[in-house]
Amino acid sequence: MDKILVRGGRKLAGEVQVGGAKNAALPILVASLLCDGPNTFTNVPNLRDIRSTIDLLRHLGANCTIEGNTTCVDASGLNTHEAPYDLVRKMRASILVLGPLVARLKKARVSLPGGCAIGARPINLHLKGLECLGARIELAHGYVEASCDRLKGADIYFDVVTVTGTENIMMAAALAEGVTILRNAAREPEITALADVLNRMGAKIEGAGTSEVTIDGVEQLSPVNAAIIPDRIETGTFMAAAALTGSDVTISGAQPEHVKAVIDQLRRTGALIDVAEDRIRVRGGDRIESVDVKTLPYPGFPTDMQAQFMVLMTVAQGASLISETIFENRFIHVSELERMGADITISGNTALVKGVKTLSGAPVMATDLRASACLILAGLVADNTTEVNRVYHLDRGYEALEKKFEALGAAIWRENS
Ligand code: EPZ
């Protein structure tokens, strides 16, 4: 397993290009199942999760090619309704094929994704939504078995805001008979991006990006060419790195509108942030002010930025309260940060972070995607060298992160062990 080493204390400087959004690319690639013919997607990040998705789409019979950051998917050859455990277990978001398979093939057998390090990750709302559309759902032997005659539009309320739940049902409803209304829908930019692609395929979706989405089902969809939106979490990760190291860094190819909550929070810590159309300049100061933060569904502060922001607070002036309201176990990175000298006390879903003068480099263990990024950030400001192990977690969601930080001046390198 690879590890990444960081020698702390270096300032960063210059410009970094942000890549395509993993969490937009995954549902958009899966949406190719809804139509026959070649879809071409550009600005697709070169990540493990993308490759896992392509493996699954190929298993289902789609013809897929990846050339750099361009991916083509043609589902004309769709020939099975089953997504097996050995593919789904590699990436939970594989559950996104459930809605499209039921819509296209009138049946699906998809392995239950199971939980992960940050939480149980149930899919009850995905299943409730499909049942509302008329699908018959059975759970047997670790699989979801769904079938229908033809999905029919329905008025669906999500008890909890769910990103992939909203995406799954939106894709299924696109080919249902009649109108579907999704209430308490997720509002993330990735939802809007998916709806834009579906509408270009011929779907009739209104209200994406708001909590009420209306889908007027159609008979058939057609293939499209589309570009993936920039990754707002990668953007936020570089913004946090600049604020953390007191550096002057410009993130280009970004979508400032998608990171407003992160901009607001970082400004409260004392960072100077200038925003232009597709770039964000962050200048970190000599001191970091402690700021409380609570993770919320979009447009609130994103849970996927909680660990990265916590690193900032570990070396801030004073104490801050960080509340994680989305996932029940998303403080795993805390014990690793404590091994680097951070002063953090957890009580329920809240962490009290007391700023310390400096962190100390140490061997640490990545446990999930965003925890990996936070440990690299911590290494940037820790004394001596930090060794981040199990970086396969990182490679799921960041394309060559260490190369991008090296280009900004960090002393960071990967060792294949
Ligand atoms: C998406 O996960 C993202 N993944 C996650 O990013 C992100 O952290 C999360 O949304 C929240 O923003 C992708 O888009 C591929 P949810 P998702 O359904 O859709 C509960 C990363 O680091 N819930 O919005 O799985 C659930 O337990 C990843 O890139 C139910 O109770 O998250 C959680 O408490 C990590 N029943 C809350 O809703 C359901 O049926 C939000 O989960 C579904 C969800």
**Number of strand elements:** 24
Which small molecules are bound? ligand EPZ
How far is the first residue's CA from the last residue's CA? 5 Å
Helix content, binned percent? 25-40%
Task: List its salient traits.
UDP-n-acetylglucosamine1-carboxyvinyl-transferase, Chain; elongated; alpha/beta; single chain; 417 residues; 4-stranded mixed beta sheet; binds ligand EPZ
How would you describe the overall organization of this protein?
It is built from 14 helices and 24 strands. The chain has 417 residues and is an alpha/beta fold. It folds into 2 domains: 205 residues, Enolpyruvate transferase domain (UDP-n-acetylglucosamine1-carboxyvinyl-transferase, Chain), CATH 3.65.10.10; 198 residues, Alpha-beta prism (UDP-n-acetylglucosamine1-carboxyvinyl-transferase, Chain), CATH 3.65.10. The radius of gyration is 21 Å and the shape is elongated. The model has no long low-confidence stretch (mean pLDDT 97). It binds ligand EPZ.
